[in-house]
Structure formats: C-alpha cells, structure tokens
C-alpha cells in the first residue's frame, strides 16, 4: 500500500475499530454485571422469603411458593435430599441436585394441636413457648443454571440461603431469578454494536481519506513543481507555499530556501568556472605564443617570461584546487599550533619582498590555536602578498590575544600604508576573481583569489577575516581565530 492516504485511512480505521471493540466489550461487561446483580438480588429476596417460612416451622407442603415460573424454588436438607420444590418444576440444574420430586420426610415443625395444648396450661407464662428457627445472615452463594417450569425452559440465577428450624434442622433454599432480561438486553446492545460498527468504520475511513487528501494536496503541488524543476533544470522556479502555518507550509518554505541556496551555489559555480577559464586563458595563450616564437626563432625566446607564466599557472592551479577542496566541504585539521610562531616562520621565508615586513609578537608561545598549519600559513601569506601589492613603504603584522574566558581568541593584524579599501567595497573584495585594481596589469594585480581563499579558510577554522582602515591610512586585515591556550 504505497498511498499515504490509504495508509492513513487504514491506520485510523484500525485504531477506531480497536477502540470501539474495547469500549463495546467494556459496556457489555458492565451491563451484564449490573443485570446479574439485579438477578442476584431478586433470587436472594425470593430465597430468604422461603427460608423465613421454614424458620417459622412451616410445613414443606404448606410453603408459599407463588410466582413459580419467575422464581423456581428447590429446598434440600442437610443430607442433600430434596424436601420441597416449586409446583410444576419439571427440571433444574445449577443447584447441586437435579431432583424435582420431594423425598418423603417429617414435617418441618411441630403440629398445631400440640402447640395449643402446651399453651393452654398456662396462658400467662411465656416460658413454655417453643424455640424459633432462624435464617442465615451470611451472603448467599450464587450460581447459574436452568429450570423447566410447566414446559418452559429458561436460564436462571440461583441464590442459596440456609434456614434452621426450631428442631435444629438446617435446610438450604435455592431460589432462581430469570436471566431472560439480561440476555435480551445484552443481545440487543451487542446486535446494535455489530450493526453500527461497520457503518462507523466506513465513515471513519471515508472522512480520514478525504481529510488526508485535502491535507496532502499542497504536498502534491510541491512534488509536481519539483519534478518540473528537475526536468527543466530551471532553479529560478519555486514551489507553491500554502497559506497555513502547519508542517507542510514550513516544508514548502524550507524547499524554496534550499532552491535559493542551490541556485546561488550553481550560479557561483558557473561564474567560478567562467572566471577560472578566463584567468587561465591569458597565461596559457602567452606561454604558447612565446613557445611558438621560440620554436621559429630561438634567439627571440623569452625564457624568463615563459617561466613567469608557468609559475603563474602553477599558483593559479593551486588556488583553484584549494577552493575546490574547500567547496567540497573538506574539514581542516585540528593540529595544535602557535599562531605567533607560524607568523614569524612565514615572514622569515619571504626573502624577495619589495617592502620588508615588520613583525610584532609580544609573547612567545601564548597564541595557541587548532587548525591546518598549511592552510593558515596560506592565509597569512595571502594577506602579506596583498599588503605588499598595495603598500607604499610599510607592511606590518602583529599577533595578540582577543577576549577572555570562553570567547578567548587570537588576532592577527596585517596593515599597510597604501590607498586602503573603500568602505562600500570591503565585502566585495572577498569575492572570487574580484580586483579593485583592474587598471593594473594581471601580473601585478593577481587573479583575485587570495582574499577569497583567506576568508574561506578562516571561516572553516571557526574564525573571521575582516578589513578596516589602518592608522597609517591603508588597509588593516584582522584575522581572528578561537584560542586553545598556550
């Protein structure tokens, strides 16, 4: 079952079915218990009424056993013999004995003549009154059974009550109450449930299907639009956003945000490829021209120029490879290193700089960071190259601590006394292949990748790279990285 609507409808129907079945069984059990309690009460009342007669020494054949069909009665003695039954009782079960004919036995009490003779001797003296029997006050025992009265068989609930005659004879009275009312009521409720349950489940399934279909209609719209975007490769299109504030609306908004980011990424990638092709075309064309001239006229071969173009190609290829790795999400290493020592080492290797670099590292070994030594060295080198390209007579680099506690960091500042960076261009210079000195030659101006690489590396190390105005009037680049202690 691949449809969400079908699965939702089936799931809701099953849940409702289980809930209704459980509730129905509970209702039936409660109803049966209440009706059974009523039958118990009726049977107990009938049994105690007969037991009261026996306690008064009423003869077995003189017992008042009216309403026999509703309350059949069976009386047994201590030996289990049946001594009295309801008239027209033809069969019985559930009372411990299925006998419906009384066994011959002595009367339950003394004769009336003896009582009159005894009482006539002294009418004022109550000490000669015979002892009275009693009815047990214990809760009766209940059982289910059947009885056939005057040809009509039915189910009954029997109550067993003990009675003791004045002669000390203990008798047990089994009186029944019919269960027809209980069975009829339970059957009616059960039938109504069995009839209504399928109808209700069909209604639940239909409503769930329609509600789910309506709720998922925007999802189908999103799917169709995404399929169209995939087929057309047009990332400028967007999926429809519902007016609701539910999960589907948030899904549509997130999808559109993803498409926006993806479109920007693809556009940036296309510009990157175009700009890289443009940057590579010039040194390759120049190198080819020099080699072709050298092949035709060896005396005219410009070897230094060919070497310079080759070096430029090598540097540009290295920059492009690093950017590709960064775009691919390559995570930098987590090697502990001292940023102050790295700055000193990088400056010491710059022997051909036009302007000597001034280094300021106040404390040795106090500027620990975690990261890739090679990538951070590239950042420092790119910043120094940029400063050398624009400085008039000063290039300075300094390392210092920044912040305290959990926000502690290490700051590296590279400044020069050149023309500086206009405030409205301070973010644009970090874009790839952007040069503010387009009037200068490509050899002097570079390819416009150094600052973009520096910022990307700083961001992947959890740091920042910003540009400000230096006190000398030129540019001040500030690299800030999280500190790890000495």
Overall mean pLDDT: 84
The overall strand count is 14
Count of individual domains: 3
Instruction: Supply the helix-strand structural class.
Output: alpha+beta
Radius of gyration: 53 Å
The biggest sheet amounts to: 7 strands, antiparallel
Report on the architecture of this protein.
The protein is an alpha+beta fold. The protein contains 9 helices and 14 strands. It has helices spanning 4-55, 112-121, 180-232, 247-296, 303-327, 339-348, 373-390, 442-445, 450-460, and strands at residues 73-76, 82-85, 89-93, 134-135, 141-149, 152-164, 170-178, 335-338, 357-360, 368-371, 395-402, 409-416, 464-469, 475-482. The strands form 3 sheets. Strands 1, 2, 3, 4, 5, 6 and 7 form a 7-stranded antiparallel β-sheet that branches. The two termini are 62 Å apart. The relative contact order is 0.07.
Keywords:
single chain, 486 residues, alpha+beta, Helix Hairpins, Heat Shock Protein 90, 3 domains, seven-stranded antiparallel sheet, five-stranded mixed sheet, 9 helices, 14 strands
